[in-house]
Each structure stands twice: as C-alpha cells, then as structure tokens.
Specification:
By secondary structure, the chain is mainly alpha-helical. The chain has three helices and no strands. The protein is elongated and about 140 Å long.
C-alpha cells in the first residue's frame, strides 16, 4: 500500500506541477492574449477600411457618372464652337503668310533690289573695317596709358619707400 500511496502522491504532485506550470505560463507568457488582441484589431481594421473604401468607390462612381452626363457634353459643345473659330483664324493667318511669302519672292527677284542689296553689303564690310581700325587705335592708346600709369605708380612706390624710414 505504501507504493500505491506513493504513486498517488506522485501523480498528484505531477498534476500540481503541471497546473503550476500552466498558471506560471499564463501569468508570464502573454503571447496567446496578445495574438488574440492582434487578430481582433486586424479584423476591426479590415472591416472599417473595407467600408471606407466602398464609400470612396461609390463617390468616385457618382463623380464619373456626373462627368459623363453633364460636364462632357458641355465641354464637347464648347470645344466644337472654339475649334471652328480657331480653324477660321488659322486659315486667315495661313493666307496672310502666303501673301507675305509671295511679296518677298517678288522683291528678291527684282534687279533693283539686288543692286541695293550688294551696295548695302559693301557698305557693311567697309563699316566693319573702319570699326576694326578704330578698335586697334583704342587698344594702342590703352596700352600706352597702362604703361604710363604703371611707371608713375612705380615711381610713387619708390618715393614712398624713401619716406617710410622716418
């Protein structure tokens, strides 16, 4: 009987140790509780997000229908009117450009204009030569002035160094 008593005590002790382990696990290990809370939070978030997205899609659908039924026809009508005006103006501008091109072509073919053009080219070349000569004169005068000033400042520096000993 003592052995069966020991076995009962041993089994009871085993159950107590197991229960103590379970209690300790529940007190210290919060993972199952946290996992349950996380699952609950995710489920709530997805439900609320789903409703919000449905409302957003419904609003977008309403806006698209409104655009198709009201705004699009108004825009099409206005576009047709404005395109017709733009086409008329473009044709007028094109006609004017063609007339200007025709006049320029006639002017270039004129011999008198060719003579005047050649004379203007010669005048322009002469003018450029004169400007180059004037530039050379100015450059020479500038170089002489720089030389004079450099010499003058050199002398002033020498004079100043003489008086620096006092």
């Amino acid at each position: 009987m003592p052995e069966s008593c020991n076995q009962k005590v041993f089994m009871t002790m085993e159950k107590i140790v197991k229960d103590a382990g379970d209690i300790q696990s529940r007190l210290i290990d919060h993972r199952p509780v946290i996992q349950g809370e996380v699952r609950y939070f995710v489920r709530e978030f997805e439900e609320k997000r789903g409703f919000r997205e449905c409302r957003l899609l419904e609003n977008l659908s309403k806006m698209a229908v409104e655009q198709n039924e009201q705004v699009l026809p108004n825009c099409s009508h206005t576009m047709q009117q404005n395109l017709q005006q733009a086409l008329t103006r473009l044709e007028a501008a094109n006609h004017m450009a063609q007339r200007i091109q025709q006049r320029e072509l006639e002017a270039q073919q004129s011999t008198h204009m060719q003579v005047c053009l050649e004379r203007r080219k010669a005048d322009w070349e002469e003018f450029l030569k004169q400007q180059a000569a004037l530039k050379e004169e100015v450059d020479e005068e500038h170089a002489k002035a720089v030389g004079r000033l450099s010499a003058q400042y050199g002398e002033m520096k020498k004079d100043l160094s003489k008086f620096a000993h006092f």
